[in-house]
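We close this part of the discussion by returning to an individual protein. Part of our work consisted of pairing the sequence of a single chain with a tokenised description of its backbone. The amino acid sequence and the backbone structure tokens for this protein are reproduced below.
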Amino acid sequence: MIEQLRCAICGEPADPPKEQVLEYVLELPWKKSTEDRLDLKEARRVLDEDHYGLEDIKERILEFLAVIKLRPDAKSPILCFVGPPGVGKTSLGRSIARALGRDFERLSLGGVRDEAELRGHRRTYIGAMPGRIIQSIRRAGVNNPVMMLDEIDKLGADYRGDPASALLEILDPAQNNTFRDHYLDLPFDLSKVFFIATANQLGPIPPPLRDRMEIIQLSGYSDREKLNIARQYLVPRQVRENGLDPERFTITDSAITLLATRYTREAGVRQIERTIGRIARKAALKVAEGETDHVTVDAADVRQYIGPPRFYPEEARKELPAGVATGMAWTEMGGEVLFIEATLLPGGSGLTITGQIGDVMQESARAARSYLWSHAAEFGIKTEMFRGYGVHLHVPAGAIPKDGPSAGVTMTAALASLYTGRRVRPDTSMTGEITLSGLVFPVGGIKEKILAAYRAGIRRIILPSRNEGDIEEIPEDVRRELEIVSVTRISEVIDAALEIVVSNPPPSAEIDGIIRDKTEHDQQPAMIVRER
């Protein structure tokens, strides 16, 4: 019956010739596998040669090799590398394949919206073909390659199906040993394939799909790590690609550090490599024109090669007035230091919030004010400060959207400083979520936040006590210079953040008229505030 199906337009057979299907079936590596390289020392050497740091991931790969060595029929793991752009997720997959001695296949899933691209088309359709999974297996020529599913968080969905749902079977070790491509309609064993997915964010990945993968977080690099990566990998590669050699081109550590801090703003090293490439090309021009035989680039020379700095990182303020506190934020490009500013509005009421902040952050600000109001006596705050004054809270920079609960601690410290007149210590930065009952909850992105504070010159950090385990991720040389204050309640935050001496007494308000009774009608006299 199927053989008689024909296209309604041209009258040609709708399904592909049987010879074509059989040829595809015969070309698949049903039994052919690559023998794994089980020399753990050699595998470690290869991983260290290709990537700096990333010890957790390297340890996970060596664990898998050890299991394969002890049990050859063990199933391959399914990993998902999550991290900001440029930290080496894709290149790490190639290094893993090289360390294992396996073939490497990469599938870019960004923008894929058709389920048939992964599972294949049924042969009744014109132009039917196998899915990209089976095509990759055919290209590799073995049934156990390292297959990278790049940008898995960029998958789409429309009327043609949901590719993420198709991945539920492909990435399930209990099901993928009998994977059926719609085009071939034969079970193929994918359990020997080493799947590695990459993503910038976990949020867009459906929870059932996340549950099938082992999530490994890749955080951004510190300035010292960027320097080491540039020195060991980026500079030699750019020197080689631009026709130079180490005898003709030298770039100092101070110049590389300047590039990382003032000319690029990223968690990874992609922009740094491009900037080094620009300098190397200008050096190649000088050498080719015969101006010099050797070019040395120091920090003072960078400006003449690529112009003035593009970024000026936030620095710790030497003195904070009452109502200003230093916080930390996480971005896809790494961590940032932000200042939360609050001021009193005589005769005003309520809370005004600016700085293009989202709903969660606004709720944190309202919760901070409500907590301080309900515990005013505990912190020595006059309740007239809440009834007689409005508050304006601002979070620079105003053009950058911000959201999340981790600024709750900083907002509370800024408001407490404003109401009590006690300044926040300028050498202290903080992060944490707050509750109305006065608890401090843990937050994410601790490594990036602390590194941002360290770059800004801050050496004292207030963290939720349940984030103490994240401190181990901080490089040892940075950790030695920091003073970490762990807190569980808002009262501990205020004691640790605010100076003891009242340096800027808050204004007091004397109520001359009648404070409007909120239960009465609006015709009642309004509150009149006279500053003393």
Summary: DSSP finds 18 helices and 20 strands in the chain. The longest strand covers residues 334-346. The radius of gyration is 30 Å.
